[in-house]
Design brief:
The chain is α/β, with parallel strands linked by helices. It has a single domain, classed as 3-Layer(aba) Sandwich (Rossmann fold), CATH 3.40.50. The protein has helices at residues 13-23, 41-50, 65-79, 108-138, 157-163, 169-189, 218-232; strands at 4-8, 29-34, 55-59, 85-88, 146-150, 195-200, 242-244. The chain has a seven-stranded parallel beta sheet with strand order 3-2-1-4-5-6-7, with helices on both faces. The chain binds NADP nicotinamide-adenine-dinucleotide phosphate (NAP). NADP nicotinamide-adenine-dinucleotide phosphate is lined by residues 9-15, 34-35, 61-63, 89-93, 121, 125, 150-152, 200-201, 203-204, 206.
């Protein structure tokens, strides 16, 4: 049983839908970790619309380890020190310079900067958030000790090879680093009966929370519902698995 969740990258898109679905169960405590609470308009709107009193907005930036530590400390102060489940969902979207393949990069200097930043947020950020929240997860009140890392099929070697995808290098390279970082954590935490799994949602339309305050599509709700069912079913024998949501 899991009842307290921290969702990293909860301001919009898939992360926000995790917040909405989890907070709909009043016995859950939901910690929505965002970079800037004041400008997370879609999250604020959802909390207001549903009248959620079990959602706590916490600020944290995964690019900065000390910021993750402050977020974890704030969550611990509210829970008494424990947390059942961490959902690491945040990602850095790629700018146009990285949409193309290696041969068509318009500006190598810009590409260098983009790839380095993608590694910092998508790769290193995953290590930061798990590291910072680990003491809380070790003290999981229900003993669940779950970590779900939301990634992409494009972070998998065999998918890129079989589907022959040369485009989107910085997103896919940085997500493959994320998958390996998650795997390293799963190996490290296995003796402590943690369950860490990588979940890949497939293509989901999150355009409803990219701009104005429109309603989200049904496909998003369905994808998150499927991921939550998988998170519910995560037990230590699933540690280190990559679960594709179809
Ligand atoms: N949507 C899809 O089709 C799809 C497909 C496969 C996999 N995924 C995976 O699903 C996850 C969510 O995707 P999405 O489409 O919902 O993305 P999204 O709409 O772009 O949302 C990304 C979230 O990450 C947050 N974020 C960005 N940089 C951050 C940082 N440095 N620290 C903390 N939070 C940060 C953003 O917050 P701000 O408001 O602060 O920017 C936002 O809440 C990602 O891991 C993605 O790789 C999505």
């Amino acid at each position: 049983m899991v009842s307290s969740y921290a969702i990293i990258g909860a301001s919009r898109g898939i992360g926000l839908e995790f917040v909405v679905q989890l907070a709909s169960k009043p016995t859950n405590s939901v910690f929505a970790v965002v970079r800037n609470g004041a400008i997370s308009v879609h999250l604020q709107e959802a909390i207001k619309k549903h009248g959620f009193s079990n959602v706590h907005v916490i600020e944290g930036d995964i690019g900065d380890y000390s910021s993750c530590q402050r977020a974890a400390k704030e969550v611990a102060e509210k829970t008494g020190g424990g947390l059942d489940c961490l959902i690491h969902n945040a990602m850095r979207p790629s700018p146009p310079v990285s949409f193309t393949d290696f041969l068509n990069i318009p500006d190598m200097t810009e590409f260098d900067a983009d790839l380095t930043h993608a590694f910092q947020i998508n790769g290193l950020g995953t290590i930061h958030s798990i590291h910072a929240f680990l003491p809380l997860l070790r003290a999981s009140p229900t003993g669940a000790k779950k970590i779900a890392v939301i990634s992409t099929e494009g972070g998998k070697y065999d998918v890129i090879r079989d589907m022959k995808i040369a485009a989107m290098p910085s997103y896919h390279l940085s997500k493959s680093v994320q998958v390996m970082a998650a795997l390293k954590w799963s190996v490290l935490l296995a003796p402590e009966c943690f369950t860490l799994a990588v979940l890949t949602p497939g293509l989901v339309d999150t355009s409803g929370t990219k701009g104005g305050l429109d309603a989200e599509g049904a496909a998003l709700a369905k994808a998150v519902e499927a991921m939550l069912a998988d998170i519910e079913g995560m037990t230590p024998e699933k540690n280190g698995q990559i679960i594709s949501i179809r």
